[in-house]
Amino acid sequence: MKALLEFIKNRNWMLWALILGIATGLIFGERVAFLQPIGAGFVKLMQITIFPYIVVSLIVGLGKFNPEQVRSILLKAATVMVCLWGVGLFAIWCFTFTLQHHDAGTFFSPTLVTANSEIDFAQQYIPANPFASLAEGNVPAIVIFCIALGMALIANKRKNAVLEFLDVIGQGLTVISKKVISIFPIGIFAMTASTAGTLSVEELNNLQVYWVLVLCLGLYLMLVLLPMLVAALTPIKYRALIMVMRNAWITAFSTGNVFIVLPVITEGIKEHLRHIKKADEQADHIAEVLVPIAYTFPSLGKLTTLIFVMFAGWLTGNPVGLADIPNVTLSAMLSYFANVHLAIPFMLDSLKIPADSYQLYLSMSVLTAKVVSPTTVVYIFAFVLLSIFYCRKQLHLKRLRSIYYLTLFSALLPAFMLASYTLNSYLAKKTQAADEVIANMVVADKVPSHVLSYVPKAYQSGELSLTNIDVIKKRNLLRIGYLIDNVPFSYFNQKNELVGFDISLAHRLASDLNVKVEFIPFKKHQLSEYLNKGYFDIAMSGLEINVADLTKVRFSDQVLQLQLALLAKDHQLDKFATLSQIEKQNLTFAHVEYGPLLTKVSKDMPNIKFKQLANLKAYFNQPEKYDALVISAEAGFAWSMFYPEFGVIVPQGGVSKYPTGFAVAKRNYDLLNYLNAWLDIQQASGQVNANYRYWILGQGSQKTTKRWSLIDEYAPELLNE
Questions:
Q1: Is the Cα torsion angle 117, 119, 122, 126 positive or negative in sign?
Q2: What's the rounded Cα separation, in Å, for the pair 486 and 616?
Q3: Angle subtended by helix axes 306-315 and 208-220, to nearest 10
Q4: C-beta neighbour count of 9 within 10 angstroms
Q5: Main-chain phi, psi angles of 464, to 5 degrees
Q6: What is the pLDDT of residues 414-447, one digit of tens each?
Q7: How far apart are the C-alpha atoms of 289 and 72, rounded to whole Å?
């Protein structure tokens, strides 16, 4: 008991703060969300010394070496880094192939039409203005500048005065860091409690397959591969290494930030080497130099996010095959020298994975940082320790312990892969398929309605073409024309209910008029005839506002602006990446609308033939007859959820956007004026935007539940006292 109390008192404040924070979040749930600003404040407190620390440690560390030592150390460190990259990437690829077949398909995201960020290596790594790099937090450029200045001081005979001054500054920064670390358990508790209390079950379920992949891979790297490599090749024991990394690991886990623990890593390495009587001045210098360098270069923690790129390909029906591994690996190593948020879109683009998949990464970044950051911490420890002992020529494989650990981490790799495969197989059975999500969407605020599959003979007399608001209210019925199977604007869900973006707005319009609503089907070429003969009052179904129809019907103000795109089989999408590629091919494109727009395109591009279809379903019945379908990207993504083998692409350099709206008969100015004023109100109140988020982006398309907590589950009476 005494030993346990001593262990709790002296060594594990970080761990206990973590455990207590998780427990507090689980007990009180969202009630501890107020702790989040406290945790954020402690993170900023930790960041106070980081940039000065990098500058001082690199300049002093390099400046104290002689030229021969620097060349030897950096060459050996580079060798260690490349070897760690090799074994780490091998593990990452192994976990990639534990993914099962998936029913792909996702909702549209505006990022699809956003130009991919180009990775500017010059800006990232060349410190044209070191002061600007410091102000902007551009760590790679800062490191390059400090390395250059530190190496320039090596041969300078008057360097001691500068180095001693900077060394004193560095000692002061270390003292500040230690003081902050001593009270940082408070920040750990605050961040962990607020995260555990506010993280919803929906967020965990949203991308649970990816989360399992990252978790299994991260645990293997940081608890098996990296520490066992160090234990196998150096005199440092496995358990001792885990204890040395503990505080930095817990801090990185809690904050999702490696940058703030760099001084902790450096001091931890130096202190442990002193503890095992392996410390000397050179080892301290190597640690001070290599820790910031290791953070700047691609770490195995950062490279674990490569698993997301593989996951995105699997999720969208573009899985990465064995033949792609060499090119993907090379692209990854080059792109990950930049920021992860630049590298991932670049990788998605290089693998022809829809760019909007990056939104999924952002939505999971808070969770994955809990694995990526501590993995990076373990990688830096392993890299620096292996480099130190390599420089001393003390790496060896001739001990029994070396054989034991090498055999153990080799055997545990398939075990972790099996765990990942088993968990994901189970989760895949529980996960709702993409087509089920969109097929189960419903109109929230409905009025009494009647959905017809034909035009009644009573409506064909032509007497209703001048219908106005007074007539609609008097007969207590609003007649809406809709296109059949025009996902996501008007379609039948799994319960055979007519739903969609425009259908939802039609119900709201009828509600505001305090009348019932009736839906009557039409085909696109029948729009002007049916409206002007009075078969229905308003046409609503994602209708393109085009010049040709302006002389036949009256369009309302713009409701949405849609992105023109092409839909085709996944393996054919790369043929339509740019307009210049399309111009070189003889193609046949199907379409349902866009006639006037495509007539102009066919004059400019005679190599393309356009075939008009009665409805979108006709294309999916015989897709082999056409090279692609011209469709809005918003609708295309919705259809790809029903047909996962199809994907959507927006050719670069092509026609971008077009407006959509409602249509009324040519002479119905009264109804048109009412519609436009009503639309202004809906736009201002946010109703149109809410419909867009639900029907087009899919936000809120799955049921959400109240955040669970122990106090709500087992002691709700305490809350009412």
A1: positive
A2: 7
A3: 150
A4: 10
A5: -110, 10
A6: 999 998 888 877 776 655 555 556 666 666 667 6
A7: 13
